[in-house]
Amino acid sequence: MLERILEPEVMDTEAEAMDYDAMDFQAVNLAFAQRACQLGPTKATVLDAGTGTARIPILLAQLRPAWQITAIDFARSMLAIAKENVVAAGCETQICLEFVDAKRLPYANGSFDGVIANSLCHHLPKPLDFLREVKRVLKPHGFLLIRDLIRPESPEKLAALVTAIGSDYNDQQRKLFADSLQASLTMTEVQAYLQHLGWVDDEDTDFGLHLYQSSDRHWTMEKAFQNRPIAGN
């Protein structure tokens, strides 16, 4: 198995933020936003952890006008571009941007109807700290959608995934992707975190927590909005 090599937790230079925002994630972001809408109710308070440049909250605001979204990041350069994007989209009344460490959330227990995070865990040296906070701030009946990259089994598979993104990306963007893949978790590691937290992977029900591989490079953890808590809460 390929060793996990951490990348910097915070991408906080203007160049990194601009490179990230310029990458074409529209299709995967839209699919993520649409899945979140399927899992959540029509009206909800939602936390987006590691929002980056706020592309996903903007999609959510457009798809769910009654959602109030708190979008947090620990990189001021990302939030600066996020603010520009939110204003340009006319979503200021729905999206609140905050400079917050996702491992130490300043919100009360059970503050949110839903928690989402796209490609955050691989930035964290100890993702369990973040997942523990997610469990704390999520309402017992709330919905959950967390997606991230899977660490490949070998250098060869990592190189193949980087090659597969195509030639539209510059060398810095390709390096960011390669570093992110190597910093990511395996499915086994994510499952161990769930067990540690007492969260049961209950794929046989419509509303239980479910962890699965959602593409050749992603894992997804999700739970639908419901009127009963997930097992372990």
Automatic annotation (TrEMBL):
SUPFAM superfamilies reported in the protein's UniProt record: S-adenosyl-L-methionine-dependent methyltransferases
Superkingdom of origin: Bacteria
Methyltransferase type domain span: 47-146
Keyword Transport: no
One Pfam family cited in the UniProt record for this chain: Methyltransf_11
Keyword list, A-Z: Methyltransferase, Transferase
Keyword Transferase (UniProt): yes
The protein's name in its UniProt record: Class I SAM-dependent methyltransferase
Organism: Synechocystis salina LEGE 00031
Species classification: Bacteria, Bacillati, Cyanobacteriota, Cyanophyceae, Synechococcales
